Amino acid sequence: MISVESVALGDPRARALWEEQQSEIEGRYGEADHAADFADHMAPGDLLASFLATDAGGEPVGTGLVRWSPYPTGAGSVEVKRLFVRPQHRGHGHSRVIMGAIERAAWRAGAVRIVLETGNEQPEAIALYRRIGYGEFPQFGPYLGDPRSVCFVKELPARVLVFNGTMGAGKTSIMEAAYGLLADAGAHVAQIDADFLCEAQPAAANDRFNERLLFANLAAVAPNYRNAGIGLFLLARPVEDPRGRDDFARAFGHSVAGPAQVAIVRLEASEATRQSRLQEREPADFYEAFAKARTGELAASIAELDLDDAVVWNDVVDNQDRDRYEVAREVLAAVDWWVAGAEPLG
After folding, report:
1. Does some domain include residue 148?
2. Is 311 within the bounds of a domain?
């Protein structure tokens, strides 16, 4: 049983293990990795996380590091470095546990793929990567043309967070705040006000709110985002169809990585708060003719379906709206996305 923690790049325990790794590589290949000091020359913002694994007694037993790839491996790629477990601790699945922490860090940051390099004199490493879903990848960066190098890749599924709720619940406002928190932290994230992708007239007779048009449009643009290296998606959209989660998963799916991982959070606000917001933001005729009645109808429909992973209150407190960044943090925490100020991105 080991514990894996995120540590500073200069952590002396991790650095000592890196030195042990280099000695082992020198023994296998006749020379050490001349790029062993890469960590001292990384550009600001490249590091996602450096991990240290310790046993029950606190003894360091392994390391792993993940950074945004500095090589032409495709936008949104991260690279694994310094995966190492001390020889006396091997055979217990520790490398798999460390790789799990690395993959979680990459996924939370919005990476779309993980790349790494190992050598043909490390058959145990090659076997590990294949077991956990990695396929061979063209050589890149300093490994180009090296007959000893074997490179691997794993495509990551997109991660989608849907801000559900009725009219006036604050979906777009809270989505924008969450986007700001994640973007400021360096995550690869996009926000989409889904209503704009299906506002078209006339609507189909059996598709009042253009749901089919929405998901066709999302499926059409999702590859563009992935090609740009974006792995996290925030969407503001009421979810009224029981198939909604699956529809979002398919729209942002990938032929290799599979369907997107979808979380749905419902924002709630009192009837009085919603009516006040709608009256303030909507033209008088639209408010009276549609929005005033629709907010209650939609709230009841969403509540009855109960598709949400969490419900977060976004009402007026002491005659003022709650701080939208506070609400956004609650939403991210509720579905185990990264929470600004609470922990490192990894």
Report:
1. yes
2. yes
Q: Is the pLDDT of residue 340 over 60?
A: no
Where in the sequence is the domain holding 148, given as residue range(s)?
Answer: 3-155
Domain boundary among 155, 178, 201: 155
Same domain, yes or no: 247 and 163: yes
Residue pair 236/171 in contact (Cβ under 8 Å)? The answer is: yes
CA separation for the pair 217, 200 (Å, rounded): 12
Q: Measure CA of the first residue to CA of the last residue in the chain; give whole Å.
A: 21
Distance from chain centroid for Cα 303 = 27
Whether 138 maps to a domain, the answer reads yes
CA 178 to chain centre: 13
Q: What is the pLDDT of residues 90-100, one digit of tens each?
A: 999 999 999 99
Per-residue model confidence as pLDDT tens digits over 6-58: 999 989 999 999 999 999 998 888 876 655 567 777 877 899 999 999 999 99
Residue 21 in tokens? 């790794």
pLDDT band at 77 (very low <50, low <70, confident <90, very high): very high
Global confidence as pTM: 0.93
Indicate whether 59 belongs to any domain: yes
3-state percent breakdown (helix, strand, coil) of the chain, nearest 5: 40, 25, 35
Six-digit token string for 116? 């790494």
